[in-house]
Known about the structure:
The chain has helices at residues 18-29, 60-70, 93-121, 132-135, 143-162, 181-194, 198-207, 217-228, and strands at residues 9-12, 33-38, 51-54, 75-78, 124-129, 168-175, 239-242. The mean pLDDT is 95. It contains eight helices and seven strands. The protein is α/β, with parallel strands linked by helices. The protein has a seven-stranded parallel β-sheet, sandwiched between helices. It folds into two domains: 9-176 and 215-241, Rossmann fold (3-Layer(aba) Sandwich); 179-214, no CATH class. Strand 4, helix 3 and strand 5 (124-129) form a beta-alpha-beta unit. Helix 2 runs parallel beside helix 3 (93-121) and helix 6 (181-194) crosses helix 7 (198-207).
Amino acid sequence: xxxxxxxxxxxxxxxxxxxxxxxxxxxxxxxxxxxxxxxxxxxxxxxxxxxxxxxxxxxxxxxxxxxxxxxxxxxxxxxxxxxxxxxxxxxxxxxxxxxxxxxxxxxxxxxxxxxxxxxxxxxxxxxxxxxxxxxxxxxxxxxxxxxxxxxxxxxxxxxxxxxxxxxxxxxxxxxxxxxxxxxxxxxxxxxxxxxxxxxxxxxxxxxxxxxxxxxxxxxxxxxxxxxxxxxxxxxxxxxxxxxxxxxx
Length: 248
């Protein structure tokens, strides 16, 4: 079934790589007008048909200016995020602030900027990328990451509840371990820390997956298409866990 997002305008943050890019590409394939953003606009090359914008989601001023330029949208996907490695003893105040600013407050900023237009039109879908870690489970060395992603779930539910009769919906996608450039960076860091090969470090990530494989950005994008479409118009305030059974 093609054209599931025809006529919809969508903003996707962190669309330069990984889950954000896969979502932007899937939205384009389903007929949406996509406003793709990334801190590094060069990463948006190759998203044929998308309107590309450089956007720092940590800047309230930049987001406000972008929202004025973009105008009203039907769909907002918040995909920007940062994975901190370590326990509470490894987390400095600066790292705590960075994790919450990028993983949570950035969503607060973009929702505040685009929600009024959705309310005025009586329609909108907000999709926040959370994580299976922090939503339904924990994982070693994911202290502040898990805490910040749990906050994303709370933020999502609060927005959904406050505007439940307005035609605006908010849902969270909670991925498990997904193959992405971000994961490649974490695997390389783990290999260096443990003085092992990159292949061995990657296998350690795979071995902890009940399905015996990593997830793909495209699998997360398929869920985002559903949540952005009118097919999910009776769904709001939910955490949609797609983790290959990690939280079972």
